[in-house]
Each structure stands twice: as structure tokens, then as C-alpha cells.
């Protein structure tokens, strides 16, 4: 477990709000899933409910994600119900000096808001709310390095992603000098963070694109479970777990790689794709055919080869017709690490819905965000393979793309990116 996996209920909020609900102690050890332990003097349960069955909703507002740590927040942090992804370009004439000042400002603001404190010049949008699991994550795009005179320190991992045959990318909604991912379990808290960071950008950087997403709200299901996407599938089952022995090696850049990119130690690379779902077409497909597209049951996410959600896929199991029960073009088969030389990534997406497109179809889908120590051993080989023969590809369209270097988390007194910008 990493330092940022440990979420704490801020003592102040706990006493101020949760205490009133009778929850005497709350600890969230949250890597890969929220576990809420309520040691209430009222005999509350371990799923956050009080003895009288009243949900301890106050825990949603009270949960605090740590800003400082080995890794930035928002990577292994449990997915929040609201998200904003926003890319900025440095303003014309702005260079390294302005970038340093901006990263300092952003870090001060993010730290305050994640702790539930109002930043300077506050708008008041989040007044009354606790931190609500707010996380703010900062990344640098390929173009940032030229703009700041740091080209020699640009990692090769930021080389442009290859073009894929199914790409229908909008350049204006792709890439960017800087990238910010905001997540929170309250819509106002998330928007508040977005506004504060936009205001902090001042004259130094301009918004290039912004996308808004959502996930299931904490407490909406009877027990914590893997989220569903807008196609109705349980999505996230095959993700690497922080307890896997090779988790850190796959997701985070190791220290001591030496040389120009040492500043990325503890960091990770984010691939961001706005993937439209062709929901009208998808929903016309009978459920048994939808299940063959993925290779898993829709109801509970279990592999078509049998078992429960967490059972390994049996890719060789044959059906009565002599064909593999998980079809050759099933999404789960093609993307499985064992089919891709072990290539793995941590998928941490948000769903999006931006209304109805001009053709009358829903402009909805997945803000696909995946994390890896090296995109050439994560996203790229898997997407190459999916691009060639994934049954899901008839029902999705990749509309924008970004690749960002997300440096390690700041130590106390440091700002995000300091090891790049000041060495
Ligand atoms: C290149 C990477 C991937 C893209 C792009 C992608 C898009 C995408 N996926 C779903 C739905 C599901 N994906 C599932 C599994 C899965 N997908 C990827 C990679 C990409 N998906 C991986 C690596 C895996 C895990 C494979 C494994 O370890 O077995 C599943 C099954 C459940 C699960 O494991 O999460 C679903 C469902 C959509 C809807 C989508 C684009 C919109
Ligand atoms: Fe997938």
C-alpha cells in the first residue's frame, strides 16, 4: 500500500459532523476500494450504517485524501463520484518562470482544498462541505518541455502515441501542456476545485479543453462493488491490485533510473481517451450477444468460462459447439495481460454524458484514464491489439487522446513538479 492509499477522516470534520451521527472512529485504508469501518458507540455496522440503519452519509463529506506522499493522489485513490479533466496550454510568452509560479500556486490551492480548507480568494462554492475525498492530480504533456526549455529532461515515454486505425481524434480536445485531474465525492466540491485552479492559472496558462465525468456515488449500492459503465458492464475487475507483488513496478516509475528523467521517480504516465459509446447500437444488441462482446456476464461480471467476478478467465474452455466460450474477439480476451506479454495498466475512468449530439444520439461514454509506469508496456500494446480485432470497437469511438507525465507526489514543503522545474 502506498502513502496516498491511506485516507484519513480529518479529525476536525469527524468531531464536527460525523460525531453527531454517532460514529466514534473511522479509518479508511482504501487502496483499490473503500472500506469504511464504523466503530460507533451506537453499535453501528462496518458498512457505515448506524444501528438504526441510517446511512452515515456524513462520512462522504468527511473523507480526506492526502496531498503529500510518494505518489500523487488520484491514481490509487478510490474513484470518486465526480470528476473533471482539464488541460491547459501555457500562455504565449510564458516559460519556465511562469510554470514554476503556477505549479507553486496550484499546489498550495490543491493542498488546502484537499484538506477541506478554503483557498485564498475563495468563491464560497464549497462552503459547508468537507473535503469529500477531493483529489487533484497534475501532469505535464509533451509540449510542456519545449515551452519551458526542459526538452533534455523530457522522458521518451512521452513520445507521441502511435495512430490507431479506429481513431477519430479531435486535436483541439487532445493533449495539452498541462493536465489536471480532479475527483471528489461531491459535485460542488469538484466544481469548486475546478474554478479555483482555473482562476489560479491567471495569465500563465489557458484552458485547452475540459471534460466532466461521473461515477457511481458512494453508498448507492448495498455493498461496495466494482463500478458499472454506461453500457451496463461491470468495468474494472481485471485491474491490477495494489496488493499484487508487481503493482508498483507496473504502475509507478522506479527511483534511480538515473539521468535526465529521475524527476519522474514515484510518478506514472496517464493515457486519457474520450471514448464515445454508440449506445443506440449497443442497446439493440441482446444481452447474450453483449456478453460475448466482452467475454463476461453482464449481471455480475463473471467470465463466460464460469465462476464469479473474480475467477480467472479460462481462455481455452470450449463450448458444446467446439468454439471457445470466450470468443476470439472478446474484449476481455484481447486485453488480458497474458495475451499481451504481461502488459498491464490501472484503469480509473469516469463516465461522461454531454447531452445529445447533432445526429440525435447520446454524446456519452467513457473518459478512459489509465496509469502505467511506461505506456509502451501498458496502453500501447493493448490498444494496438484491440484496434485490430476487438468486438467492442463497433460500439465505441475514440474521440480524443492525451498522454501526460504525472510526477511523484510532493514531500511536505514541496510543490508538484519541483524536482523537474528546479534541478
Ligand atoms: C487500451 C486499453 C483499453 C481500452 C481503450 C478499453 C476500453 C473500454 N473497455 C470497456 C469495458 C471493459 N473493459 C474490460 C477489461 C479490460 N479492458 C482493458 C483495456 C482497455 N479497455 C483491460 C486491460 C481490461 C482487463 C483485461 C483483464 O485483465 O482480463 C472489461 C471487463 C471487466 C474488467 O476487467 O474490467 C470491460 C467491461 C469499455 C466500455 C471501453 C471503452 C469505452
Ligand atoms: Fe476495456
From TrEMBL:
<keyword id="KW-0408">Iron</keyword>
<dbReference type="InterPro" id="IPR006313">
    <property type="entry name" value="EfeB/EfeN"/>
</dbReference>
<keyword id="KW-0456">Lyase</keyword>
<keyword id="KW-0732">Signal</keyword>
<protein>
    <recommendedName>
        <fullName>Deferrochelatase</fullName>
        <ecNumber>1.11.1.-</ecNumber>
    </recommendedName>
</protein>
<keyword id="KW-0349">Heme</keyword>
<feature type="region of interest" description="Disordered">
    <location>
        <begin position="296"/>
        <end position="319"/>
    </location>
</feature>
<feature type="domain" description="Dyp-type peroxidase C-terminal">
    <location>
        <begin position="226"/>
        <end position="409"/>
    </location>
</feature>
<comment type="similarity">
    <text>Belongs to the DyP-type peroxidase family.</text>
</comment>
<dbReference type="Pfam" id="PF20628">
    <property type="entry name" value="Dyp_perox_C"/>
</dbReference>
<dbReference type="InterPro" id="IPR048328">
    <property type="entry name" value="Dyp_perox_C"/>
</dbReference>
<dbReference type="InterPro" id="IPR006314">
    <property type="entry name" value="Dyp_peroxidase"/>
</dbReference>
<dbReference type="InterPro" id="IPR011008">
    <property type="entry name" value="Dimeric_a/b-barrel"/>
</dbReference>
<keyword id="KW-0479">Metal-binding</keyword>
<keyword id="KW-0560">Oxidoreductase</keyword>
<keyword id="KW-0575">Peroxidase</keyword>
<comment type="function">
    <text>Involved in the recovery of exogenous heme iron. Extracts iron from heme while preserving the protoporphyrin ring intact.</text>
</comment>
<dbReference type="InterPro" id="IPR006311">
    <property type="entry name" value="TAT_signal"/>
</dbReference>
<dbReference type="Pfam" id="PF04261">
    <property type="entry name" value="Dyp_perox_N"/>
</dbReference>
<feature type="domain" description="Dyp-type peroxidase N-terminal">
    <location>
        <begin position="72"/>
        <end position="215"/>
    </location>
</feature>
<dbReference type="InterPro" id="IPR048327">
    <property type="entry name" value="Dyp_perox_N"/>
</dbReference>
